[in-house]
Specification:
This protein has seven helices and 17 strands. It is α/β, with parallel strands linked by helices. An eight-stranded mixed β-barrel has the order 1-2-4-5-6-7-8-9, surrounded by four helices. Strands 10, 11, 14, 15, 16 and 17 form a six-stranded antiparallel β-sheet that branches. A two-stranded antiparallel ribbon has the order 12-13. Strand 8 and strand 9 form a beta hairpin. Helix 3 packs parallel to helix 5. The longest helix is centred in the middle third of the chain and has 17 residues. The protein starts with a strand and ends with a strand. The model has no long low-confidence stretch (mean pLDDT 90).
Length: 290
Amino acid sequence: MKVIDISQHNGDVDFRQVRASGVEAVMLRSSWGHFVEDLRFRENVRKCNDAGLPYGLYHYSYALNESEMMHEAEGLIALARQFSPRMPVALDMEDADGYKERNGTLYNKALNTEICRYTCQKIEEAGFYPMVYANLDWFRNKLILSQLDRYDRWLAQWNTNGPSLPCGMWQYTSNGSVPGVPGRCDLNNAYKNYPVIIGENEEGGQNIQWINPYVTVQVVRGVGSRNIYYVRNAVISGTVIAELKPGESLPVDMISAAVLSDGFKWIKVDLGQGVVGYMQVDLDYLRFLI
């Protein structure tokens, strides 16, 4: 798969042009440090959704100890749960500005490895696909790879004909040119079809065919004593990301063409600001407004 990675530093990106150029997915910087959201992240998510481009997230870590590690992981997961990434959620381990070196942790392999291991574990427990981003020097000299074998590597290695380590994704240049992206951008080859893998995991292992016959869905009545209807970040067993009361409505993006394994059809709904959710279609509780 042809993949680009984008942050606020890439400016105003036209993702429709990006997709038309042959790019198949995007990794978006979601955040950095402990804890700052990328200024264009939500805008970029919305534009990727509008263009039909699968996207993933990456967080640039500044963690120097266990407390900061846990705080960053918590922030990343809380942010990711507001969206529906169909690419991995990655931890970016590098030291481009010398912060880790100045603070004495750059060569602490045990600490660096634990930051990656803990964060990826929490990402996976939250239902996302974890990945570690680093350059070849980091993977060879600043991390204990045997302790991270469970997680895919996103290897940055430029000016070479191929990756020197097995990896799920290879960033082969920072000097790429893609229509729709102002200036230079990073280019990557993904060796797994992550949207299919992640889609199968999120959607109960089912290949879902989506159609779009409706405009709006409205809650007629809620479930249980609280009288609410749930919106999740994935079908079947996703995490609750929103609650709707009777009378509230949402735009519908898609509806499954067939009943899924739980005995219901499901819909994709637009929660705004690029956030997509999923709702079980039970007509005792919902009605569609055409």
